[in-house]
User: What shape does this take?
Amino acid sequence: MTLRNLEALVCLALVLVGCGGHKSTGPTANPPQITCPADISIHSVSTPSQVVNFDPPAVTGGEQPVQTTCTPASTSMFPLGSTTVNCTATDASARTAMCSFTVTLSGFSIGQVTKYEAFGDSLTAGETGRAFLYAPLFDDVANAYPTRLQASFDSVYPGQGIVVINKGHNGDTLEMIDDTIRATIPHDRPDAVLLLGGYNNLSACSGAQSSPHACRDAIDAVGFGIRDCIRHIKEANAGVQFIFVSTLTPPGLSGSLRGDPNAIVEANSQIRQQVAAGGAVLVDSYSAFLGHEAEYVNVDGLHLTPVGYQALSDTFFAAIQATIPQTPLSRGAIRRPGS
Assistant: This one.
């Protein structure tokens, strides 16, 4: 074998074990590096959540292609409060780099009004409807309007310690509701009182035993009852800042407990007068329900469906937001979700 042939064989052997005589040792590029955007703060958000856009993180190095993901992603809905965004860069050799930043959405403070107490009858307690007179009833507390109202506060004003107390009691007339108010308000000292009642007073306006005279007295009793409730809330001198009084919702299209529609209209006229005279805030649930009776009122013609209780809560919530002053929260006043 000539020297030239030997050199050729050596060269071939070097090619087989690796270019230039060196074995492959993996990627030659440096591992990926990732740098996240700066923290983001958005103020005066008037909704429970908002779409947030942010620039993608800057990535250098790594074996191409390098994939970058962020969770939550840009253009996602972010809730009020602080949310951590975690970003990862992964290169073709499965090497990763991570970074994170914070997106903070601050909403509004609803003053110093944090304790709400709801008084009323079965429509405050959250009683369900019944298809016939002696069918069983129960309080669907999860869908009662005070419960749904609490959820709205928690969503729009998170971390502000707002609480809604349900003092509804099935079967109570306004006179009985007034007794509960006088016994409860001085002890509980709520910042705001919510009032819905009068349906049981108007039972004299329907059924076989009704008479025009008895119905007239019942309608007047609704007006007097609302007047007395407002007066006794104020006389308790317990620090109540706002009193929200609802009109009676319209009856359903049919049902064993369906009230007299005309009596409800007249009683609501009395309620409006007493609310104006007493310096309370009117919550016009009657108007909000008109045209939606089939959807909002249960089969017994009186109590509400879950959708109806949500609509009642929304009507109270809108009146509260329109009445109680709100101020933008600073970043320092925000709590992280769950804190």
In short: The chain has two domains: 32-107, 109-327. The radius of gyration is 33 Å.
